[in-house]
Specification:
Blueprint lengths: L1 H13 L16 H8 L6 H9 L8 H11 L2 H5 L4 H5 L6 H23 L7 H12 L6 E7 L5 E9 L9 H10 L4 E7 L9 H17 L2 E8 L4 E3 L8
Parallel strand pairs: 3-4
Antiparallel strand pairs: 1-2, 1-3, 4-5
Helix pairs in contact: 3-4, 7-8, 9-10
Length: about 240
């Protein structure tokens, strides 16, 4: 009997400890309580994501689950590129949780875009890229956007013109310059993304720009640059001497 008791005790000592739940943590350390007391900026990425999750699963609380998923996708930069199919396949992520995360990521991108282009001045290709990089570098389809500029090269509006294939055969100059004419803007910058991640301009990109530059001269609207966005990188067609 004594031997059986010793074996049982040894087994209990070797058994893995029970994973703590959020309720096991002091209330002051709960992500929602920390946000309330210290502000959202004081929270880690995992804590912010845990608030969106609300609950974890058996053996893994919301904070641990958020930490695991962030680590798998290399943090927020990686999370910004994933979609619903990838998220819903993760252990513990329901339809609701996956949608909450995607909505949160998209809101973050839109807030960054609004802050960036609010009367921003365009002086360099980097200025153009910074306006749209957060929102465009992870897009799975090609988007072409027109940045309208006033006489001081400040951003008036960013117009999303095309979604899908962007090439010389489909891009009509009348549509590219329509908003600039409407807003009486003397200049525009053009930006589109390459979902492949390689921002090097194609032959079609160069042909399109030659056509648009000539159209701009007729309308007396300057095309200051065409920036192509890749994965966390970009190419300025003017800077590299393509078509300009």
């Amino acid at each position: 009997m004594a031997t059986q008791t010793m074996i049982a005790e040894e087994y209990r000592h070797d058994a893995p400890p029970k994973a703590p739940t959020m309720r096991d943590m002091p209330m002051r350390d709960w992500p929602r309580e920390r946000l309330k007391e210290q502000g959202a900026e004081a929270l880690t990425n995992a804590e912010l994501m845990a608030i969106l999750f609300r609950t974890g699963l058996e053996g893994e609380n919301a904070l641990a689950m958020a930490t695991r998923i962030l680590a798998k996708y290399d943090g927020l930069p990686g999370m910004s590129h994933i979609g619903y199919p990838e998220l819903i396949s993760e252990r513990g992520l329901s339809h609701a949780k996956a949608c909450q995360i995607l909505a949160g990521i998209e809101l973050g991108k839109r807030v960054a875009s609004v802050r960036n282009h609010d009367q921003a001045a365009i002086e360099t290709p980097e200025d153009i890229a910074n306006l749209v990089m957060a929102e465009m570098n992870g897009l799975e389809r090609e988007h072409l956007r027109i940045i309208l500029l006033n006489t001081k090269n400040r951003v008036v509006l960013i117009h999303n013109l095309y979604v899908g294939s962007v090439n010389a055969a489909l891009v009509r100059p009348a549509e590219v310059f329509a908003e600039a004419v409407r807003w009486t803007c003397p200049a525009i910058a053009i930006v589109h993304n390459h979902p492949s991640g390689d921002p090097h301009p194609s032959d079609e990109d160069v042909a399109m720009m030659r056509q648009l530059i000539e159209a701009g001269k007729v309308l007396d609207i300057e095309v200051v640059d065409h920036v192509i966005i890749g994965r966390q990188t970009f190419v300025s067609m003017r800077g590299k001497g393509f078509a300009f």
